[in-house]
Amino acid sequence: xxxxxxxxxxxxxxxxxxxxxxxxxxxxxxxxxxxxxxxxxxxxxxxxxxxxxxxxxxxxxxxxxxxxxxxxxxxxxxxxxxxxxxxxxxxxxxxxxxxxxxxxxxxxxxxxxxxxxxxxxxxxxxxxxxxxxxxxxxxxxxxxxxxxxxxxxxxxxxxxxxxxxxxxxxxxxxxxxxxxxxxxxxxxxxxxxxxxxxxxxxxxxxxxxxxxxxxxxxxxxxxxxxxxxxxxxxxxxxxxxxxxxxxxxxxxxxxxxxxxxxxxxxxxxxxxxx
Amino acid sequence: xxxxxxxxxxxxxxxxxxxxxxxxxxxxxxxxxxxxxxxxxxxxxxxxxxxxxxxxxxxxxxxxxxxxxxxxxxxxxxxxxxxxxxxxxxxxxxxxxxxxxxxxxxxxxxxxxxxxxxxxxxxxxxxxxxxxxxxxxxxxxxxxxxxxxxxxxxxxxxxxxxxxxxxxxxxxxxxxxxxxxxxxxxxxxxxxxxxxxxxxxxxxxxxxxxxxxxxxxxxxxxxxxxxxxxxxxxxxxxxxxxxxxxxxxxxxxxxxxxxxxxxxxxxxxxxxxxxxxxxxxxxxxxxxxxxxxxxxxxxxxxxxxxxxxxxxxxxxxxxxxxxxxxxxxxxxxxxxxxxxxxxxxxxxxxxxxxxxxxxxxxxxxxxxxxxxxxxxxxxxxxxxxxxxxxxxxxxxxxxxxxxxxxxxxxxxxxxxxxxxxxxxxxxxxxxxxxxxxxxxx
Lengths: 274, 441
Known about the structure:
heterodimer, A: mainly alpha, 1% strand, globular, B: alpha+beta, Rossmann fold, 3 domains, 20 strands, 25% helix
């Protein structure tokens, strides 16, 4: 028996610091939760993991037809299909991650009300599991690069940074929405709206230059704008405004920190009201 | 040596979702208020005198308790006494409103069997997942994996998704993982109510083993036999307060005595002041009346197998349809034995009703075993289940009777059922021979 071990349980109210020691103590559980979500996502489907690449691929084909062929939207250099895919891949990650993580506390209600562990693992784990899908869809991007004989540039080295930024943006949004979802089930109706509108205010199907100068600030404030532009820069070598990317990534980081804090503030009451 | 768990003046307040409704308020006022709430919120007029008082309720009210290492402590009390809240605070699932707890050892809690089990994952995968959720390290699970599988007796189905498991296998596997946790303090809530009898015995055995190993166990149960066997010490909670702390036998006696205190008895039970009432909508229930065979008022005990008719008197402040009433019969351990609910009635009253109502429930033959039962009564409205509910509103004593018409009194089980026994000619009947053998032996 460890004589030194002592834990005090006290009332908790208001803002709390994130308990990193505890997160490290429980780190294996986060791994297990990610592993579980990966394992069960495509269980009992015919195509299994293929869905990870089919979703962005089909979206890309539809967007190419509607926006490129019908509406004559042009890319800023590479073939439109490549251009669209490099944007759709991170966007699919973001939209699926936000949808699943905002609902994650409710789908894991039983765990929230019956066991103790750092609650942030639930939304974060849901987002983490989707990183696996993102890697698969990036694999398909490599295949498309070969088909279109489009050369990779040294900018590919930036890719991990933008993957991390995509993770922070999705996790930040997921933390806020999942915490709010416990008390306000309205969130369920807000999320599809955010995801749908987000597609149009993020340069996924059009290059950022399409947006008039006076609206460019919208891209700076949009955490996913920097991610999408960055993915294109890294994968296709398209030009990128680093000032814009920097601002947008800064917003991602702030969003994530804010998400952690608001989640910590609200998690006290999860078990009581879920 | 300092106690391994020190509970210092712990209180927990819940604010129940429903707004508290003043008695003078009519349903129409309520509806009006609900309809205008969004506008009031927008115009900021929500503050001030119109601000609704949330329904506040103290699940725990200043509980202090020291638990020493090696104690096997039973926690007993009726439903809603605060037992589960105390365990949830100890497990850090919810935080206390006031007070402090000092834990001087690692605590693992088992408030439910199989938390986090995923039906699509195999037995093997769920062992790891569930183990991690309960706080085990992967290396620890690896080490104890074979033991867990042997205890659960599911080795043949390890790689089958648990959704194909029988409920018995599922529970065995889930308990097996939990049973191999190795904490210094183990907190267990009523999980043994699941599973078949032999498995329950095995679980109790395992818990006994854990406690003999010098660990500290906190055990909440309605199973008084288990508490008496396992626990060296027990506390009784009632309405969020600690009422008794002592030997487990004495605690059980105290608890059983306290049960019969507050419930009403007699032919007519006025419901103003009995039992534990929870009226999220309004106190609608007024009175219960009991009758037996030939509409005779039931003043004393009810004979096993005779007719029970209960008249539930209540008020409907507004014309409404689609309301229901329920009666729940609990045995002296607080376990629900039978529920009679108007929802099951094939020809429920239709149309709208308002004002005083008498809803009758007829049970042609009440076949629960002789003993004492407490009755919970409640009203469900169309949009509000449990609109008014009273736990232990009344109690009823079932007396032995010649139910089978043989003069013999049933002695075991929870109910009596009409049944027959007779011999049928066996397929390979050799009547003379078999009679001979039997006389020979």
